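Please, structure for the following, as tokens.
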Amino acid sequence: MHEDILINWSPQETRVAVVANGAVQELHVERTCERGLVGNIYLGKVTRVLPGMQSAFIDMGLEKAAFLHVADVWHPHVSTEVSEPQGAANLPTAPTPSQVPTALIPIEKQIFEGQTLLVQVIKDAIGTKGARLTTQISIAGRLLVFLPQDDHIGVSQKIPGELRLNLRQRLQNLVDAASEKGKFGGGFILRTNGEEATDQELGDDISYLRKTWSRIKEASTRMPPKSILHQDLNLLQRVLRDLVGETTQTIRIDSFEQHQALVQFGREFTPSAVDKLQHYKGERPIFDLYAIDEEVAKALGRRVDLKSGGYLIVDQTEALTTIDVNTGGFVGARNFDETMFKTNLEAAQAIARQLRLRNLGGIVIVDFIDMSPPEHKEAVLLEFRKQLARDRVKTMVGDFSQLGLVEMTRKRTRDSLAHMLCESCPVCEGKGSVKTSRTVAYDILREILREARQFNPREFRIVASPQVVELLLDEESQHLAGLIDFVGKPISLQSDTSLGQEQFDIVLV
């Protein structure tokens, strides 16, 4: 499937859309004031060690203290096989642990308050949680991931097994050759996009990554604690490093200055992508070419309509995301079983796309429409897994449960699209619903009764939304009059259009 990448740039925000078959498949947003921290390396200071949680809080000079778990503390005496971009690093100020696996050493015996640590962000702060850290440093290049204080040579597990041994030996030879020239130390993992790279390209990446690490080490000796030593690439640069592949046809950007900057960056790190870069000069906004803003608006809603007449309902909570599949008005198939099957097949494709577009992560529960034939269930699962295989983010999918649900996980490293672009409603406070006017009116009457038992004012004044005040003056006027008689004090009403339906105040006059 051929892809086009559209980039809408402004000083305050960068938006990137990956389009295939005329539809948006992925949307990436980076705001200048909210740029993510994943990949950044800091000189952190330990502010608190929690033995009970086997974790520590690290001050990096940010608004929230970051979180370091014992499992993410690198141990210099243990060489660990890794399959994902991970690495290892630490400052010499750390206590020297005994030679046993890191997980068996309590964190309080490895880290102490006031200690300075070289740490890297592996997950951005989400909600009330601070960023998650590791001392297992890894630096991503275009083709390789550098493990500064490890001698491991690895190959991405996404590369077929029969090629992995040959690629590992080839990379080992290149690393050894570079080391003979005086560039010692460090392990490497070959990324998936390095499978067909030339020796020259791999050698250039090795050199670049080692130079980057040298700059980081040098900065760590002269910079004060809570300083940033290395910042990961911005979204524009990551487009060339991570999103561009053989299926990419064009990369169009609507800023001349950023186009020139990308060309310069591409010539140094991603030469194969330079010819695909284009400066978009059209009169229409670049995102209007594929109605991308309309797709974004749809991706922020609960309902996703399917072409057949069915629809999805997507509900995102802090714990998990649920997706419910409904037939809606689809009656095109010959019988009921076929209708369910066709709708579920279409839903499997749409759900995979929505997960990418909305960047939904964590646990996802999919409630497909019930199907009786086992072959239908197998076909829907096969199609679902096929569509998810296109995802750049790691996913795992289970079988149908006894209740007919499909449970899956999708790796989460940053906020979803909804969390990035939206905030909780100030009226319902994120519940998605508000109390009725009558419920609020009764809350007010009970509150006045409660206040009357504690205080003896000259008058009670109700300040509430227009809807609630109107109800108290009309349908609930009899109950209000009865309360006035009971408390023996006058009760007045004041309408305030700035208040939400659930908001009110009782003023003691």
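The radius of gyration is 29 Å. The chain has four domains: 3-34+235-292, 41-230, 302-421, 437-508.
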